[in-house]
Description:
Layout: E1 3-5, E2 18-20, E3 24-27, E4 34-37, H1 40-47, H2 52-62, E5 66-69, E6 74-78, H3 83-97, E7 108-113, E8 118-123, E9 129-131, H4 138-144, E10 178-180, H5 193-208, H6 219-228, H7 231-237, H8 246-263, H9 269-281, H10 288-296, H11 301-307, H12 309-316, H13 320-337, H14 339-342, H15 346-355, H16 361-369, H17 382-429, H18 432-435, H19 437-452
Amino acid sequence: MANIxxxxxxxxxxxxxxxxxxxxxxxxKGNGIKTVIANMTEIAKALSRPPTYPTKYFGxxxxxxxxxxxxxxxxxxxxxxxxxxLQDLLDGFIRKFVLCPECENPExxxxxxxxxxxxxxxxxACGYQGNIDMRHKLTTFILKNxxxxxxxxxxxxxxxxxxxxxxxxxxxxxxxxxxxxxxGDTGTVENNLEISRCQAEQHIRHNDSDDDWGxxxxxxxxxxxxxxxxxxxxxxxxxxxxxxxxQERVDMFYSFVKQRKVAGELTGAEQEKGIVIEAERxxxxxxAPLVLAELLYxxxxxxxxxxxxxxxxxLTSDDPKAQRYLLGAxxxxxxxxxxxxxxxxxxxxxxxxYEFDIVDEAVLIEWDDxxxxxxxxxxxxxxxxxxxxxKAAPFIKWLKEADEESSEDDENTAASVExxxxxxxxxxxxxxxxxxxxxxxxxxxxxxxxTEDVDIDAI
Length: 459
């Protein structure tokens, strides 16, 4: 199943937030025709939202009834609707209820404040917190069906939970499958109203109280406490991260650097040291240049190589594997993301990597002689890789010739020094027979004078 960017306005192939492309199937005929979103559960999981939300959003936008059957994984919109139309509507849902208004990052959570009749959106990435526009009909549905507890987990039976000072309320049992009218006024899946009310009150108490933040166990509070710890304490405290897969740790490092980028904390010795420490803590230092290249390089890569030289050197110095991962990211950037703008500049980009000591000469030559799929993206095909190496050929040729010329110059210099040394010995010994010590002293002074005039740089 093909994946697409969650924010389809972003064309970056490195964009890490993906979701499945929506699949819609039209069933029935006549007045009973309906559209089933076959993969709504997978889409909702990628968006971190209950699958009922986007389905209900379709109903609000199309003025159609919606049916939910979480037990059988069926999410239905009445009428015949094609996949492309629903995909465009899904973009509207993502803009209104998923993406952060500040950083456009989909790492947001919705918090329902039922007493205030408001829905708050909080961004884990940049820390943004604000209210959702309550004019859309979907907000009425969200208020009645808050994201916690998950509607998918409470479809058959409910349990009474008493509030302080009150007896538990009795609730009637409902059907597993319910029908909505599309106007946002009716419920979809049976929810525990008492639990929702308690959770909303807890959120309000948390926002209005002056309790010690150290007692908060939310993700944001834990993250704030970890930021206050020293690097050594972080290493000792966070141990479960290393139990995650390499890809999950790379994703964690991506989020870490993304936050630093948004906060403008990428340059400077302390900031760079913190990034390197995080890469070492997650044990992905060799793959760190791949992540940095994705976040920091674009069509202006020639200027950015110079701008972020110090940071990349900290990660690639004396590490051929890290350098190869960087070259893999370079192939993705010039071959997939910005081919028209950067293909002609390939020799200049490689020369910049070489001149700023980010990638060693030996690694560049090995990269050209033995291309490896291990370090490059699957999207870089053989044809694209071949074209990149053809464009890089003039630089690689210059690099090899410069290396050969340097070796010849070293050999010639060594031979010249040996010959000159031998001549000075002969000149010093021959006059010594007839002129004694005075000739020796003159020859010695002449040798000292010649030594002072030697230009080491010219050699």
